[in-house]
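Pipeline run #58 for the internal structure catalog. This entry was flagged by the ingest filter as a single-chain record with no existing model, so it goes straight to prediction. Upstream metadata was stripped on purpose; only the residue string is passed forward. Reviewer on rotation: M.T. Logging verbosity set to normal.
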Amino acid sequence: QVQLVESGGGLVQPGGSLKLSCVAAGGIFRLNTIGWYRQAPGKQRELVATDTPGGSTHYADSVKGRFTISRDNAKNTVWLQMNSLEPEDTAVYYCRVEIVSGTLRYDYWGQGTQVTVSS
């Protein structure tokens, strides 16, 4: 059973930085499309960034130029570097990973990590 374990959230002042990590473990597989999503209180979950195996990345307009998604396929690890954080970035952040195992594909979500941007 594959599990995703997230870390790196916390409290940061406006203008600060955080780096979120998401590690996939528990089987023989490879990472396919990866993504980060977030959900603020009272709002729907929204896409923050995605990355395909071919290197095509997509960012929400609200984070372009501030956030960077990256991966290490050998370590089954996904990151989200967040710079110039704003109070509006406060949310629970979730990683989402499509895993390929043999001929099958599976979609997994992390447990979420809280990011709070406040002075």
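catalog note: The chain has a mean pLDDT of 95.
catalog note: The longest strand covers residues 91-101.
status: ready for reviewer M.T.
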